[in-house]
Design a protein that fits this description.
globular, alpha+beta, 53% helix
Length: 411
């Protein structure tokens, strides 16, 4: 057995298949991948890694299988999936996931190819564990996949608490021990036992507040968009391919960005935190359908058109369009009056949070500081936006709308 001192869970005991897996190259690679990507540009202490998060998920999963009375090979398979659930992440975690998916067809939870060969495959064979079974759990498939990747999964029970701890914000605090204690399987569904509507609400509220204050902080979004565009440019220039990007760690990607002429300027900006600024920061109702429904190539074409209209280099314009507002946790299942019901049907708080999420949705157009006025005006013309609703970067007292930009320039 291995005992690890953890900043969140105190001591984590790892034994069985977990102890054998812990020093495999695929898992040790996660020491070099930051858990929160570019959020460190906002919260400097958020330097924890996917490795320690994986240990935390293993710890909570071990508690869950004991509470749910899951034993034998099934329990070992769940523990292995919990420990390995993030081995498919590329550098800077979710920051490069969309790029990797476009060029490989794989998301971070599609990991069968990483489990069928090498040290992990050998350990699975020794323990009588099927790689396909572990991969299915990581993907969230089947009865026990809900425990690894679902609305009440052990993954978010760790990352919310861990991310709040390392950023220093109070929003992600949840009672994960109560969550584990109240988990039940009813008719094959993972649910919270009766009397736990408020428990489920606490998870939803924690996630909503962390999204707003941490994960989708404007500075984190800008730096994330810059990093993703630079990674895309590496592939376009042939410096790397999608498969190569998928297996890089954070250090590999930074070195490649710095050493490739097409991305060196972005690397310099990221190194010095000389980030792009918001030329446009607009609400959902102001976003044209072509922007919301467009694919990557469509948005890239719009970036080029905006850049030409503004008279700037195409690389100086980034469109950042988040997914449509949604809240997966609202479908969490709770037992009420003997029936399994979705949380959204039982909680006015859920409905309020869904409305708030829609109200807070913004798409951004980012550019170097000296180009914000020109790019903002060009965006208005190209996308046909209403200038009275274009909220721009006002962190340093700059105008809040393009109308005010115009008044300032004209004066």
């Amino acid at each position: 057995m291995i005992a690890v001192k953890d900043s969140v869970h105190d001591h984590i005991e790892i034994d069985g298949i977990g102890a054998d897996l812990i020093d495999t190259p695929a898992l040790q690679r996660l020491r070099r991948i930051n858990q929160m990507g570019t959020v460190t540009y906002v919260y400097p202490s958020a330097n924890h890694t996917r490795f320690e998060h994986s240990l935390g998920v293993y710890h909570i999963a071990s508690q869950a299988v004991e509470k749910l009375d899951i034993n034998g090979r099934t329990a070992e398979t769940i523990r292995a999936a919990a420990l390995l659930h993030d081995v498919g992440h590329g550098p800077y975690s979710h920051n490069t996931e969309a790029v990797i998916h476009r060029h490989t067809g794989r998301y971070h939870d599609e990991v069968l190819d990483l489990l069928e060969t090498g040290a992990i495959a050998s350990i699975f064979e020794e323990h009588g564990i099927e790689p396909t079974a572990v991969a299915e759990l990581i993907r969230g498939d089947g009865r026990y996949g809900q425990l690894i990747s679902g609305e009440l999964d052990v993954d978010r029970m760790d990352y919310l608490v861990r991310d709040a701890h390392h950023t220093g914000v109070p929003y992600g605090t949840i009672d994960h021990e109560r969550f584990v204690r109240e988990l039940r399987y009813v008719d094959g569904e993972l649910v919270l036992a009766p009397g736990n509507v408020q428990t489920a609400e606490s998870l939803l509220l924690a996630r909503a507040l962390m999204n707003r204050a941490v994960y989708n902080h404007p500075t984190a979004r800008i730096s994330r968009a810059m990093l993703a565009r630079a990674a895309e440019r590496l592939i376009e220039t042939g410096a790397i391919d999608g498969a190569g990007l998928r297996r890089m760690d954070d250090h590999d990607l930074l070195v490649t960005l710095r050493s490739t002429p097409a991305t060196q300027h972005t690397a310099d900006r990221l190194d010095s935190r000389s980030l792009f600024k918001r030329a446009v920061w607009a609400e959902l109702d102001d976003a044209p359908d072509e922007l919301l429904e467009g694919e990557f190539d469509d948005r890239a074409a719009l970036e080029t058109e905006i850049a030409e209209a503004a008279g700037v280099d195409p690389a100086a314009v980034i469109l950042d369009v988040p997914p449509s507002p949604s809240m997966a946790e609202s479908t969490s299942r709770v037992v009420v009056n003997g029936e399994i019901r979705p949380l959204s049907s039982q909680s006015a708080l859920v409905r309020a949070l869904l409305t708030a999420q829609r109200d807070r949705w913004r798409f951004g157009v980012y550019t170097p500081e000296e180009s914000t006025i020109a790019v903002g005006r060009a965006t208005e013309r190209v996308l046909g936006l209403d200038i009275d609703h274009l909220v721009t970067d006002d962190h340093w007292g700059r105008p809040a709308t393009l109308s005010e930009f115009t008044e300032e320039v004209d004066s």
